[in-house]
Design goal:
Blueprint (H helix, E strand, L loop, with lengths): L1 H35 L25 H12 L14 H13 L10 H9 L6 H4 L5 E2 L2 E2 L8 E6 L4 E6 L2 E9 L10 E4 L2 E7 L6 E9 L2 E5 L1 H6 L9 E3 L2 H10 L5 E5 L2
Parallel strand pairs: 3-11, 9-10
Antiparallel strand pairs: 1-2, 3-4, 4-5, 5-10, 6-11, 7-8, 8-9
């Protein structure tokens, strides 16, 4: 009986020792894991605090135009990109300015960036903000043609004018779509270009095509060259001067404005 009790006591000690060993091992493992685990960031100073954006990519309005006008003064932004919209080119110009002033190049305008920009520029004038529309033959072009690069297309005078920063560089005769296939009016941009395009819809050649609204494009038309205004397009803006359209095609870039209007 005494031997049985001794064996139970020894067995209990062994189990206890084993359990203690497991606890010790567990504690050690936990400590090791804790040693290598990354300490989480906390809001109390460990996370980066970014300044509030006053104007950023996608912003629009008069405030954006003023910022852009100041960037134009510093020659960090081309005048063609001065409008009411904060886009890629404005963001790039803001980053250049921030780098020049030792400000983190976040690419958006916070209060500090705006303050620094105001210090080194003058208040934009009305003319700087809204340059007057070019005047051709005593008539003003559409105001949207006054800034940047634009194919300014007047359906009343049947003229296309290539305008750069308010200066008319080229002018050419054009014709438009018939009543049922009217050329759309409005503000567009050149979406893509095709030097030797052929219409799959009408099986007709459209050399030097610059597409601006769906299937509508500015392009050379041999029919217009031969028949003049006796014919009409299927909605495109036809040019009859082959030499001029070749030059224009090389000058115009994807993204340039296309303004179709009536004077």
């Amino acid at each position: 009986m005494r031997g049985l009790m001794v064996r139970k006591f020894v067995s209990t000690l062994a189990v206890g020792a084993a359990f203690a060993a497991l606890l010790t091992a567990g504690t050690s493992a936990t400590a090791t894991t804790s040693d290598v685990r990354a300490t989480p960031f906390e809001v109390s100073g460990e996370l980066p605090i970014y300044p509030k954006a006053l104007y950023k990519n996608g912003s629009s309005g008069g405030g954006v135009r003023k910022v852009e006008a100041r960037l134009v003064q510093l020659k960090l932004l081309e005048k063609r990109y001065q409008d009411d919209d904060f886009g890629t080119m404005t963001r790039s110009a803001v980053k250049k300015f921030q780098k020049s002033k030792g400000i983190p190049p976040l690419g958006y305008v916070d209060q500090n960036t705006l303050n620094q920009l105001v210090k080194v520029t003058h208040e934009p004038t009305q003319t700087e903000l809204y340059p007057p529309a070019p005047v051709v033959d005593g008539k003003k072009l559409d105001p949207r043609c006054a800034t940047g690069v634009a194919l300014c297309i007047d359906k009343t005078t049947r003229k296309l004018r290539y305008v750069v920063d308010g200066v008319v560089k080229m002018q050419m005769d054009v014709r438009f779509g018939a009543v049922k296939t009217a050329t759309r009016e409005g503000s567009f941009t050149v979406g893509w270009k095709s030097r030797n395009h052929v219409s799959t819809l009408y099986d007709s050649k459209m050399p030097y095509a610059m597409f601006f609204s769906g299937g509508q494009a500015v392009h050379y038309s041999s029919d217009f060259a031969a028949r003049g205004y006796n014919g009409a397009s299927h909605g495109c803006v036809n040019v009859r001067d082959l030499t001029k359209i070749k030059t224009l095609f090389n000058e115009v870039h994807v993204g340039d404005k296309v303004i179709v209007y009536r004077s």
